[in-house]
Write a structure and sequence with these properties.
This protein has 925 residues and is mainly alpha-helical. The protein contains 48 helices and seven strands. The strands form two sheets. Strands 2-3-4-1-5 form a five-stranded parallel beta sheet, sandwiched between helices. Helix 43 packs antiparallel against helix 44.
């Protein structure tokens, strides 16, 4: 068992006492440990108010962790600005095993733990945490215990939550304890949780009598429970201050009870009974976050408290010493003592600690900052160093805090504005959009440098379109492009392309401006013919997006294809350009290119461990997978993207993959309602930002599919789809519902839009849908000609679902015309395609039509991988590419053991026993 200074047992022997009445909670923890022993990893959060017994439950778990290796750490309030501080303590015993995890993860993890210099990717460090824990658990099941999780530094909390959400087949149990009602929260609402309440009745009586050493009158017991809410710590403290006669009911209880003002008051009373040197020593201990006696003693000596003061504090039982480790009786002692001190006393304690922490620049800088009450260039320089080192490790939250405090201690002007901008940028990267927005707004008052001003506007725009208003975000990007045009042509070109991309999605500036200013294409000069490929490609994309906003599809197609040709001949690695190439492919329905681009982006992002780009490639690639009938792949992508979006810290981002899951379920004829309900909940609770329109379109389509049997209801939903690309995907569903609902006017309206797009792009897929719609409107006369033209166009299109729909519609038309033999050919083709797609509602409809034509529809035995779960499909696909379990795990952001678990399931379901057999199977994954 691994120990550290922050032990969970207290100076008083109350562990067994406070467990009274905790049988259900102890059972939940025991189940977690038993599951880990058998290879079913998981996590549990124990919540409750201060003093309710959370730490005691954790101590009990440690005592019962037989045959488990234990790692533990705890959050420390004063340590919360230090990036990865708690994680470093937790993983320190495993540091010799870091080389066992994939090299990119190992490098990021070493940077996060401060063992190596260099740029650290936070998500690679998170994945490295999971891999390291899983590796350690191969030797023996592992119990990871984290107390006071609400005080974890943000980076450590994010890393541990990332790991907790991905525990599956690992022999790892993660047990957290977090306080409710504190200013800082441990946001783990999606993890299993037990909430500790107060104790009552016989359990409270046992606690009181054990502490007091005497029997407790039941009426007194109930009165004490009512006065404390049954808080175990409060009851223990009361039993120590009330007389035996009061507890036995022979003397009245004091009014009010001694703990009416809370348990902190009891600790504060003990503190105030100490002499002044002892109070100084305890204040230094409460201010310290190293838990090292040598540090506290040396600082206390500088603060006027000699060794004799330590003796007095120990006798008060508010603090204990074990070797060089020092621990307070309870976290509330720290807050009570620190808050009771004057501001001057607190600053002096911080200064004393800073003076002795010369070998720890991070802690020293923060103590200097806490000791400062006016601008100080030396302290600002120290904080700048802290921020830069934290950012390099991926500790963006800590970097934001350091730069924000440095700005507070900067006299003002450009330097203050620059630091606030850096703080805002780091807060955004650390997934704290509200904090980032506030810091950016504060920076705007001081920034005067044109380049930083442009960068600040761009950051504000990004925050705005991702969390609130697409239009306001677009306007900020326009302003940023205008500001950059005079000082940085490359940045201006990038921002102009971004603005044009947003405009293509319907963004409009809320300002009344000169039309020239509102047109991003005029903000940047045309690049020279010998300019770098990425510059010329960005220029082409810029004009293509502008054409989309005007619905000039011919010009858009020409510009986008120019960008495609340039980047095909000279591929570029540009994190802004690459996603926008994918957007361009989506806007003009270039499915094959879109699939290829997003697969390339996904592969590159997986290899780099870039979680944000993996999520982007997965969710944007779903559009093309839906269009071409790769619905199981779409479900797999959405399933993988969902936990990744959760890890970003932006809950609104989970709406899009959830909507995708709803749509795939509706296309398959499965229950989509739970996903649709979840999307509604997410959109109600969280800002969705730029993807909100996309989420709305996807859910409207899914609801329209669910209501296919009620044409009026289906049309109600389908008509609300706004995005042109999604309107084109859903067009055949609207045509079908309009025919059955006798609404040819709707068909004509959508058809006119499709005709304009088809004429401008010349795409076979668009031509096929147009001819399909014309056939439905033509009646018996020209319908057959239009259906034949549609099928001819489908032959050059990868959109199999649309091809199946046209075969079905043509077959239905021929059967109604009593041409049953001719109808059967198309109905058979439609049935086969629908079976391949797994489109159950359309399989049934095609089979009914085939039977009505006089032919019995026979079910085909389609040998596919449809029985595999999305995760099993992903694992199988990577293994078929020749990846090892370890490499596949790195790309899927899980552990090797989880990959092995899913791979064995694949073998079982497919009736095989080796990787070679899996590779040889003709599977469409």
């Amino acid at each position: 068992m691994i120990t550290h200074a922050g032990d969970f047992t207290s100076a008083f022997d109350t562990v067994g006492l406070v467990l009274a009445g905790r049988k259900p909670e102890r059972a939940a923890i025991a189940a977690l440990l038993d599951a880990a022993r058998t290879g079913n990893g998981g996590a549990l959060v124990v919540r409750g108010v201060a003093g309710v017994g959370k730490s005691t439950l954790l101590a009990d778990a440690l005592a019962t962790a037989l045959n488990l290796r234990v790692l533990r750490t705890s959050g420390v309030e004063s340590e919360s600005p230090l990036a990865f501080a708690a994680l470093q303590r937790l993983l320190w015993p495993l540091r010799t095993r870091i080389d066992a995890v994939p090299a990119p993860q190992a490098a990021a993890l070493r940077a996060a733990m401060g063992e190596a210099e260099g740029e650290g990717d936070r998500f690679l460090a998170f994945l490295g945490t999971l891999s390291l824990l899983a590796d350690a658990a191969e030797q023996a099941p592992l119990l990871v215990v984290v107390d006071d999780a609400h005080w974890l530094d943000d980076a450590s909390a994010a890393a541990l939550l990332f790991a907790a959400r991905r525990l599956q087949a690992e022999r790892v149990a993660l047990l957290f304890a977090a306080r409710d009602g504190d200013a800082r929260r441990f946001d783990a609402g999606d993890l299993p949780t037990v909430v500790l309440g107060g104790v009552t009745g016989a359990d409270a009586g046992a606690l009181l009598s054990a502490r007091a050493g005497t029997d407790i009158d039941p009426a007194v017991r109930d009165q004490l429970v009512a006065g404390t809410g049954g808080n175990p710590l409060a009851l223990v403290e009361l039993a120590g201050v009330l007389t035996a006669d009061q507890l036995a009911g022979r003397a009245p209880l004091p009014t009010p009870l001694p703990l009416t003002d809370g348990v902190e008051r009891a600790f504060l009373n003990r503190y105030r009974h100490l002499n002044e040197p002892a109070q100084r020593f305890l204040l230094v201990a409460a201010t310290d976050d190293t838990a090292r006696l040598t540090v506290v003693r040396d600082a206390a000596e500088r603060f006027g408290a000699a060794d004799s003061a330590l003796d007095a504090v120990e006798r008060s039982a508010l603090l204990r010493v074990d070797g060089d480790a020092i621990a307070l009786y309870h976290p509330l002692v720290r807050s009570a003592v620190y808050r009771a001190a004057t501001s001057a006393q607190r600053r002096a304690a911080h200064r004393a600690l800073a003076d002795v922490l010369t070998g720890d620049p991070e802690r020293r800088a923060w103590h200097l900052a806490a000791a400062a009450d006016r601008p100080d260039e030396d302290v600002v320089a120290a904080l700048d160093g802290v921020a830069k080192r934290a950012a390099a490790r991926g500790g963006h939250e800590a970097a934001a805090a350091a730069w924000a405090r440095a700005a507070e201690l900067t006299a003002g002007g450009e330097a203050r504005g620059r630091r606030l901008y850096l703080a805002a940028s780091s807060a955004w990267l650390g997934s704290h959009p509200s904090r980032a927005s506030a810091l950016a707004q504060a920076a705007a008052a001081d920034v005067t440098d044109p380049l930083i001003w442009a960068q600040l506007l761009a950051l504000q725009g990004q925050i705005e379109w991702n969390t609130h208003s697409l239009n306001d975000g677009y306007d900020l990007i326009l302003q940023a492009a205008e500001a950059a045009a005079a000082v940085d042509a490359a940045l201006a070109a990038q921002l102009a392309m971004l603005a044009a991309s947003l405009a293509a999605f319907g963004a409009r500036s809320p300002r009344v401006l000169n039309p020239t200013v509102l047109n991003p294409t005029v903000l940047v000069a045309e690049p020279a013919p010998d300019a770098p490929t990425r510059v010329r490609a960005a220029w082409a994309l810029l004009h293509g997006f502008g054409a989309v906003a005007r619905s000039d599809w011919a010009a858009a197609t020409e510009s986008f294809r120019c960008a495609f040709i340039l980047t095909d001949a000279d591929p570029v690695d540009d994190h802004v350009l690459q996603p926008n190439l994918g957007i361009a492919a989506m806007l003009i329905d270039d499915d094959e290119r879109g699939l290829r681009l997003h697969e390339q982006q996904l592969t590159a992002a997986r290899r780099a461990g870039a979680l944000n780009m993996v999520e982007h490639a997965l969710t944007r690639g779903v559009h093309f997978q839906i269009a071409t009938g790769a619905w199981s792949k779409a479900a797999g992508a959405a399933t993988e993207a969902l936990p990744l979006t959760t890890s970003t810290g932006h809950p609104g981002l989970t709406a899009l993959p959830t909507a995708h899951l709803a749509l795939v379920a509706a296309l398959h004829g499965d229950d989509a309602d739970r996903h649709l309900d979840r999307v509604t909940e997410i959109r109600h609770k969280h800002p969705v930002g730029i993807t909100d329109g996309l989420v709305a379109d996807v859910t409207h389509w899914a609801r329209g599919l669910r209501a296919a049997a009620q044409p009026t209801t289906a049309l109600h939903h389908l008509q609300q789809i706004k995005g042109p690309a999604w309107r084109r995907l859903a067009a055949l569903d609207l045509f079908d519902a309009a025919v059955r609902g006798d609404r040819p006017d709707l068909t004509r309206t959508w058809l006119a839009e499709l005709e304009q797009f088809a004429a401008g792009t010349g795409l076979p897929a668009a031509t096929a849908v147009v001819e399909h719609g014309r056939a439905l409107l033509a009646g018996d006369g020209d319908a057959e000609t239009h259906f034949q033209r549609a099928l001819a166009a489908h032959a050059d299109s990868p959109r199999l679902p649309d091809r199946a729909r046209t075969h079905l519609a043509f077959g239905e038309h021929l059967r109604r015309a009593r041409r049953r033999v001719d109808a059967r050919e198309h109905l058979r083709t439609a049935l086969a395609l629908f079976e391949d797609l797994g489109a159950a509602p359309w399989v049934e409809r095609a089979a009914q039509e085939l039977r009505a034509s006089g032919e019995t529809a026979r079910r085909r035995d389609v040998t596919t991988a449809t029985e595999l779960t999305p995760q099993e499909r992903q694992v199988a696909a990577l293994v078929r590419q020749g990846l090892s379990n370890r490499d596949a795990a790195a790309q899927l952001f899980v552990s090797s053991r989880t990959v092995d678990f899913h791979l064995r399931n694949c073998y079982s379901k497919l009736g095989i026993s080796s990787r070679a057999e899996l590779t040889a199977l003709p599977l469409d994954l």
